[in-house]
Amino acid sequence: MLDAHRLAVLAEVAHAGSIAAAAKRLSFTPSAVSQQLAKLERDAGARLLDRHARGVTLTPVGEALLVHAEAIVGELRTAERTVRALLDEELTVGTFASAGMTLVPAALAAFRRDHPGVALRLLDLEPPDGYGLVSSRELDLLITHRYPGAPLPDPRGLQRTLLRSERFRLILPKGHAKAGARRLTLRALAAEDWISGSPGVPNRACLEQLADAAGVRLRVAYETRDYQVILALVEAGLGIAFVPESVLERVGPARVEVRDAADAQPARDIFLVHHRRPGPLVTEMVARLSRPQ
Question: What is the DSSP string of 123-178?
Answer without folding.
Answer: EE--TTTTHHHHHTTS-SEEEEEE-TTPPPPP-TT-EEEEEEEEEEEEEEETT-TT
